[in-house]
Design a protein that fits this description.
The protein has a single domain (3-112), classed as Winged helix-like DNA-binding domain superfamily/Winged helix DNA-binding domain (Arc Repressor Mutant, subunit A), CATH 1.10.10. It contains six helices and three strands. By secondary structure, the protein is an alpha+beta fold.
């Protein structure tokens, strides 16, 4: 199954109860694991942090390559994984892509793992 087939994190809460309240179904476990796998990379965690901390909470891919120390194609790949997983949104302006953290996406993922 490809990353593009993920249930976006913002939609996981509506389909899945927190793991400690009831047993998770096989399908929901697979979807949640793919969403969490998108976060399970140091470069992607840094990218989320860099985008969220950037001025106005939005960053161009051109602003992320040098600080991350990776090539532009590699950074773009990681950003696409985060967009497909529902953690970031992207808008295109001219030739540049701008990324923004999806409001509540990280909260939704955290809620699935807690007893709140």
């Amino acid at each position: 199954m490809s990353v593009a087939q993920l249930i976006p994190v913002r939609d996981l809460q509506s389909c899945c109860a927190p793991l400690t309240r009831e047993a998770i179904s096989q399908q929901n476990a697979e979807s949640l694991a793919r969403s969490l796998k998108a976060l399970a990379d140091p470069a992607r965690l840094r990218l989320l942090s860099m985008v969220a901390a950037h001025e106005d909470g939005e960053a161009c891919v051109c602003d992320l390559t040098d600080p991350l120390g990776l090539s532009q194609p590699t950074v773009s790949h990681h950003l696409k994984v985060l967009v497909d997983a529902g953690y970031l949104t992207v808008s295109k302006r001219g030739t540049w892509h701008y990324y923004r953290l999806v409001s509540g996406a990280l909260d939704s993922a955290a809620t699935l793992l807690t007893t709140v």
